[in-house]
Amino acid sequence: MEQGQGYLERLLKWAAEIGISDSTCCGDSCLGHSLDVSYFPSAGGRGLGAARDLREGELLLKVPKSVLMTKESLLLKDEKLSLSVNDYAHHSLSPTQILAVCLLYEMGKGKISWWHPYLMNLPRSYDILATFGEFEKQALQVDDAIWAAEKATLKAEYEWKEANALMKQLKLKPQLLTFKAWLWASATISSRTLHIPWDAAGCLCPVGDLFNYSAPGEEPSRCESMEHTMHDLVNEDTSGMADVEQLVSDSRRLTDGGFEKDVDAYCFYAKKSYKKGEQVLLSYGTYTNLELLEHYGFLLNENPNDKVYIPLEPEIYSSCSWPKESLFIHQNGKPSFALLSTLRLWATPQNQRRSVGHLVYSGLQLSIQNEMFILRWISKKCTTILKNLSTSFEDDSLLLSAIDKIQNLDAPLELNNVSSTCRDEICAFKANVLQKGERSSMESKERWRLAVEWRLSYKKILVDCISYCDEIVSSLFHQNNSSQK
Ligand SMILES: C[S@@+](CC[C@H](N)C(=O)[O-])C[C@H]1O[C@@H](n2cnc3c(N)ncnc32)[C@H](O)[C@@H]1O
After folding, report:
1. Dist. CA 422–CA 442, nearest whole Å
2. Distance CA 397, CA 403 (A)
3. Whether residue 295 has its Cβ less than 6 Å from ligand 1
4. Are strands 265-269 and 45-50 parallel, antiparallel or unpaired?
5. Which of 65-74, 219-228, 407-416 has the lowest mean pLDDT?
6. Is any ligand 1 atom within 6 A of the Cβ of residue 11?
């Protein structure tokens, strides 16, 4: 921890020297005016907190283009790397593969790398799906998720093999040539790069990559909080007028971060107002929990963008023209607009579908009977999916608390309360990692935990959907009965 603190201090000192700043006025420290590095145990660990009260839309951090780590900036500083990478034989490698090779090459330089203070602060390991072993993949339970994990590992393996010739030409140290090292480099790129217009691989952004994530859609409406801030400022005194103008211009900004050509820097803005000490979050994009796991190695307890796809019969898909991706259940358990419309039409006799098409596409119910039929159908479908999984939602909740209590594998395991299937899973985990060292067994534990957490969030959506459908069916039933009396 102390060593980590030392690395962090070096990073911040170096960052100030190379022009990274969270302040528009000059100073010799990179952070402290708007942001501080802090630890947020329940939302991403190390991250950036507000060093003072921050206003929505305010500029928080500026990172000059010259210090962004990209293929271009790495090649500029190293002739050998530049010659090898520009060799036409490697042109089939993707921009991400090239950046991964460059990153490993830079790591191999150790202390003499210009980026050393930055590289020393990168995580030592990651939990993205591609790093999941067989045990952790199976713990996801749901076929689509297991398949996504298998595909991620296969893709990483394929890309590693393709990049091997270039890595050998660069004479990387043996430990940097391994698949493990490749996974580390690709996970660094996947979970930390930011979009830039001139390189599809994106850039690694010192200090800017310390922002943790919050899902878009979580912040209060921009207009609502703008109104409050404007009201506060105008009521302060007339010196607030300049701030008001600034605020109006800030409010036009739609993103919380991006490369700005006119200042030749990556700029980060507050996407909402923060109180001093609160964690300042960035929205990397709109992701489901499985996608967060795949690209970033974490997931959110309450992810407004999470969704569950339920398998539908071919004739259901063909009864409507909605794209397949739009037929899902929302994180709150409600079926999507397109799923409801599709089922309403499918449940209508074929010869009447044409006449009700306009009602269906406007999202209207067709009749109480039609609505009760499709909601019962969804509820039954969700129940069947849940029954076919080897553990229940309740089992997984208890298993998750049991996993949290595993400190080391020699201590007696907490097997009370958990179901016999989960007990078997705990024993299988122990058997699976017993061969590995203590460090990797704790890494496996974290990945296993993420897999269980993911399947739990998946099941919660189905459980909530069943309650939602059953509640509406019951109210429609009463409505129907009272209208017949
Ligand atoms: C760009 S980095 C953010 C800084 C990172 N916490 C660090 O210490 O370097 C992205 C990584 O932070 C973690 N992370 C970000 N937001 C998170 C959140 N809301 N919950 C859990 N982990 C999060 C994930 O490991 C993710 O891959």
Report:
1. 19
2. 10
3. no
4. unpaired
5. 219-228
6. no
Q: Separation of 209 CA from ligand 1 center, angstroms?
A: 9
In this structure, the strands spanning 281-282 and 329-330 are unpaired
184 ligand 1 Cβ < 6 A: no
107-137 pLDDT tens trace: 999 999 999 999 999 999 999 999 999 999 9
Q: What is the pLDDT of residue 242?
A: 44
pTM: 0.90
Question: In this structure, are residues 329 and 458 in contact, taking their beta carbons and an 8 Å threshold?
Answer: no
As a whole-number percent, the residues of the chain with pLDDT over 90 amount to: 69
Q: Whose CA is nearest to atom 26 of ligand 1?
A: 296
Domains, the chain, in order of start with CATH, read 2-67+212-282 (no CATH), 71-204 (no CATH), 306-485 (3.90.1420.10)
pLDDT at position 226, please?
39
Q: Is 257's C-beta closer than 6 angstroms to any atom of ligand 1?
A: no
The total of other beta-carbon atoms located within 10 Å of residue 263's CB is 12
Nearest to 454 by CA among 324, 287, 214, 281: 287
Could you tell me the CA-to-CA distances from 170 to 83, 106, 152, 176 in Å, in that order? 10, 11, 26, 11
Q: Which residues of 137-147 are buried (b: 16+ CB within 10 A; e: fewer)?
A: bbbbbbeebbe
- Containing 281, the helix (H) or strand (E) segment is strand 281-282
Q: How does residue 417 score in pLDDT terms, banded at 50, 70 and 90?
A: confident
Pocket of ligand 1 contains residue 298 by CB under 6 Å:
yes
pLDDT digit string (tens) for 434-459? 766 656 777 889 999 999 999 999 99
Q: Compute, in angstroms, the gap from residue 180 CA to the centroid of ligand 1.
A: 20
* 230 ligand 1 Cβ < 6 A: no
The answer, yes or no, to whether any atom of ligand 1 lies below 6 A from the CB of 213, is yes
Asked if the ipTM is above 0.95, the reply is yes
What is the gyration radius of the CA atoms in the chain, in angstroms?
26
- At residue 3, the pLDDT reads 63
Question: How confident is the model over 9-37, as a mean pLDDT?
Answer: 87
